[in-house]
Hints:
- The protein has helices spanning 31-40, 42-48, 87-104, 124-141, 160-173, 223-229, 234-244, 249-255, 260-268, 276-285, 290-299, 309-319, 325-334, and strands at residues 3-6, 17-22, 59-63, 71-76, 109-112, 145-149.
- By secondary structure, the chain is an alpha/beta fold.
- It is elongated and about 70 Å long.
- The protein has two domains: 3-155, 3-Layer(aba) Sandwich (Leucine Aminopeptidase, subunit E, domain 1); 160-334, no CATH class.
- The longest helix is centred in the first third of the chain and has 18 residues, at 87-104.
- The protein starts with a strand and ends in an 8-residue tail after the last helix.
Amino acid sequence: MPLKLIREDITNLSCDAIVNAANSTLLGGGGVDGAIHKAAGPGLLNECMTLGGCSTGQAKITKGYDLPSKYVIHTVGPVWRGGNENEEQLLRSCYRNCLAIAKEYNFESVAFPLISSGVYGYPKDEALKIAVDEITSFLYENDMLVYVVIFDKASFNIGEKLFDDIASYIDDRYVDGHFDNSRRRKMKGCLFCPSQASVPQPTYAEAQPVVFQDTCREESESLDDILKHIDESFSEMLLRKIDEKGMTDAECYKKANIDRKLFSKIRSDRLYKPSKTTAIAFAIALELSLEETKDMLMKAGFALSHSNKFDIIIEYFIKKNNYNVFEINEALFAFDQSLLGV
Ligand code: APR
């Protein structure tokens, strides 16, 4: 996946380049600047002393010296002064200028810290939104693996109301011990549906480990539709849905944050089985309904399970018709789940 949000110390990464959130002297400082200079050793400072500093929003490159990454791209973010002094545009230009250098050097991978979100005081969630926005725009036109390194949890400050809403949604559904101890029970052929309320329910002891797979289909789907697509593979359903949504292949896999090579594999092999995260990423990019998402997952050999908080959070957002990957990732991060696009 071309954009990865990871929790890591950037000095540990082995990329073509890591980005340093520096100050205009380029002669080192605290935060990530201090960590990078410490890990790189004196050679980095010696080269920086030849650069003549750097203006806010601009970027300059040096070698990486003792770092595992080959190069360091130094950029100077804006100091946050309330948002009315062109801070957003200056921060955006940091990302654009660093990515322009990475492209000029034909780098395959680059890692960013959250520029300006530490000492310079830029609100972390806004800083993250700008980073993701600028990087995804760049990745629409370019192939590169870009990491955004989240060093502390404060980078995602999901609203308290949304957090509580998701927490209660999980509580109502999360199945401990992988047994379905919620109201619904596995019935013959399908989970409890109101139409089968009269069917006697198995006692808890009989309840089998179930995967939440509500087989009640959407009223709107005709029997013809169901039968027509019943033998469809994951790949065939994906391509059909891309057409039905009027998207191009590139729009879909970029929005799903899937790299072009992986998409080509899926497109060329009708029986290709993607990972569950990849299948979910496509479902979100295509803005599929919950039933369509379950169909697509089933064709890849997966199902949404209520013994998996990640799945429940995905289900929550789909039911809310909220397909904003950033907001979904904020929630996944807040609940210590792996992120989409990682
Ligand atoms: N790896 C990854 N991220 C890190 C690391 C690390 N080792 N150390 C800090 N960070 C994160 C911080 O949590 C923050 O989210 O990097 C982000 C940027 O914070 P700062 O390093 O404070 O950079 P910035 O806010 O841009 O301020 C730059 O601080 O260190 C000085 O010399 C620097 O004057 C400059 C100013």
